[in-house]
Amino acid sequence: MMSDIVSVETIAGKIYLIRGTKVMLDRDLAELYGVETKALKQAVRRNIKRFPHDFMFELTKEELKNWRSQFVTSNSIKMGLRHSPMAFTEQGVAMLSSVLKSDRAVEVNIQIIRVFVKLRQLFLDNEELRKELEELKQITDERFQIVFETLDQLINIENKPKKKIGFTAKEKRGSYGKPKKIKL
Questions:
Q1: Residue 174 resides in a domain
Q2: Residue 70 belongs to what domain range?
Q3: What is the pLDDT of residues 99-128, one digit of tens each?
Q4: Is residue 148 part of a domain?
């Protein structure tokens, strides 16, 4: 069974976002395919026409530095990185099976492509959820806007000076401060 070859979690853990694209690095692919990184790179270079820039690219020194710092790799992982790694997009990974030609490469490739498809579906599902949340937020914002406007009106009414009921001390006394005589 193909799922026994490589687990979904193992593959998903080896997919990185570089240049805004989900990619897998040559060393990880070589490990999954059971070949040396050097052999994988040689096969790609012999068939370079099959790997346009949107299928495969080499990491720049800056990208490699950022990748290392992002994943805080140990010395054992850093070893062997004398040359910039090749990064393969989903299409590049699919092309690798035709270049490597081993049964394991074909089986692992099928599993990798399935993981890429699952990730894309998760992204689309999350995008739909994000849109639904935006719509809900807009409806909620409109309803709360009415509530806030009503509260503002109530606050403004409370802040207006109110007419007092009854007599003030000045009204009870005469204009000169003397008590008025009230006739009964």
A1: no
A2: 2-125
A3: 887 788 878 888 888 888 888 787 777 777
A4: no
Say how many domains are in the chain.
1
Q: pTM (2 decimals)? A: 0.57
* Distance, CA of 16 to CA of 24 (rounded, Å): 6
Asked, for residue 150, whether it belongs to a domain, the answer is: no
- C-alpha distances in angstroms, 130 versus 71, 123, 127, 133, 142? 28, 10, 5, 5, 18
What is the domain-level CATH number for residue 50? Answer: 3.10.260
- Give which of 122, 7, 15 is closest to 67, Cα–Cα: 15
Q: How far apart are CA 124 and CA 142, in angstroms?
A: 27
Helix or strand run (H / E) with residue 22: strand 21-25
Q: How many whole angstroms separate alpha carbon 17 and alpha carbon 63?
A: 11
- 40: helix, coil or strand? helix
Distance, CA of 176 to CA of 162 (rounded, Å): 27
Q: Which two tokens stand for residue 150?
A: 């009503």
Dump pLDDT digits (tens) for 37-58.
999 999 999 999 999 999 999 9
